Amino acid sequence: MLELQNIHFNVPGRQLLSDVSCNIRSGALTAVMGANGAGKSTLLKAVSGEIKISGGQILWNKQHMDTYDPKELSKKRSFLRQNYALQLPFTAYEIVEMGRYPYFHSRATARCRQVIEETSTYVGIQHLLKRNYLTLSGGEQQRVQLARVLAQVWDAPEGQRLVMLDEPVSALDIHYQHQLLGLVYDLAHHKGYTVLAILHDINLAFQYADDVLLLKDGHKVAFGAQNDVFSEETILETFGVSVSLHQPPGYAHRYITVDGRRLATTTHFMQEHNNYSFK
Amino acid sequence: MIACVLLAAVLAAGIGAVQISPLQILGMVFHKIGFDLGIPYNEMQETVFWVIRLPRVLLAVIIGATLAVCGVGMQGLFRNPLADPGLIGIGSGASLAAVITLVLGTSLLAGLSGQYTLNVMAFLGALASMIAVYRISRQDGKTNVAIMLLAGIAVNAMAGALTGMVTISANEQQLRSITFWSMGSLGGASWNNVLGILPFCALSIIGMPFFAKSLNALSLGESDAAHLGIRTERLKNSVMYLCAIGVGACVAVSGIIVFVGLVVPHILRMTAGPDHKRLIGASALGGAALLTLADLVSRTVAAPVEIPIGIITSVVGGPFFLYLLMKEKKKQTLI
Description:
The structure holds 2 protein chains of 2 kinds. Chain A is of the alpha/beta class. Helix content of chain A is 38%, strand content 25%. In chain A, helix 3 (92-98) runs parallel beside helix 5. The N and C termini of chain A lie far apart (53 Å). In chain B, strand 1 and strand 2 (142-143) form a beta hairpin. The two termini of chain B are 25 Å apart.
């Protein structure tokens, strides 16, 4: 269980996060959503310790996050980004092995090799392990990184594994998007992982998220089970977009449509458009 | 690879104006530690070996290994396979200090000028420019690697300009010394030199492998390394200090030997892979072997004239490196 209590984060002249509180469950996938600049990445950085929050507290399993030993914490908490600007031609195996670095000094232990095997199988990249990472496709690279991130927390006790994903599927095609989110969903529901993911696509959130945190300008708009959180009103408030939500009969989840043509004729857009073209 | 280094060392120790066969070298070494193998050698060979050849070969081994290891460290630190220790101003600072010593030394440091003053001054110059670059790149208590790179370029340019100004005021003899120094040479090798740089070089060669895993993780990105529980600030500082101390010591004794720090890690990355757990050790051995052979060539190819070793490393290393690039380009595995 990850508890965020009244999180504030300021940079000189601006408040990037303001009084954000929520309890993020283990065994569930929580999506963080909001427009660009709403503070989603900042929130994840606060949880990952990359930035020091200006106010509030973050508790991980009832203990203050910053009182953990960094090495111990790295065995429980891991982070997957959207893409990695790797320059050196590591093999996929070497990348996954990096996830085990907190566990060995100079040579990977037998347990490490076993975990690498297990996570690679789980993610379905066994056949890629000997390949040069740089020659893999975007989707393959991202799965290799997922295997690394999982290998890092694989040995932590159930309920103590936190995986954060910063736009994990934004650069992937539809096939890989669902493959990766399906894996992550399975981790949360069948292995008790706590998953905190920034997602952009509301339709993906409908399918895979259990809980949703909506952010706008650093404030919390809504937090809770996705069915309670997503409504045409909250989406308008969060993203400034009028949408329609639909529940097809016989489907497990809703889906969203946006009338882009209607959006283009709203006054706000017109004003902006005029400003740019006639000034 | 260890065999390669030994072979290169034995070759380099044996070839020259006074020829010494590998067996004779074996005999002399064993004689020194108290065994007599009954291999005949004369007194001149013994003197040449112990006083001239061995320190020089050891110097080449130590400097080659240090430059290559520091090259790996810098490339890992900057997450760029084209980085080398010269980037953060080590070479240019050392040059400036050395040139000042060579040109103005006789008047400023009357009585002090001499080989050792030059060495110490170059070492101090290297450290000074490195510390300047490092201080500039500090930001909110963190080291900004991109700023470090750019500050290094600026410091290099400024030191280069000052070096040029001092050089203009040099006389004929001093110009010769400056030219030789800036092309690098192991000609001044002595036991004092070897023992002088050994602690510094040993520190970087032995210290760097401790950061192998961290350097691997750093290649993912700085924050990702931190997520793996690595203290990235400590890592950056340590690697930089190791490089500054090691390369500073090398430059102080040998002048600027280009290319070893850049090319050796590159070549070995193509064969041993980018994993620093293997790469650092392999580069140390590769650098040692390469520089030993380069030094052998530098003093034998046009004997009795010595070609500066920096020329040899560039002449041989450059085309070889290009050849490797072409080959790798076809395989599409580079960078």
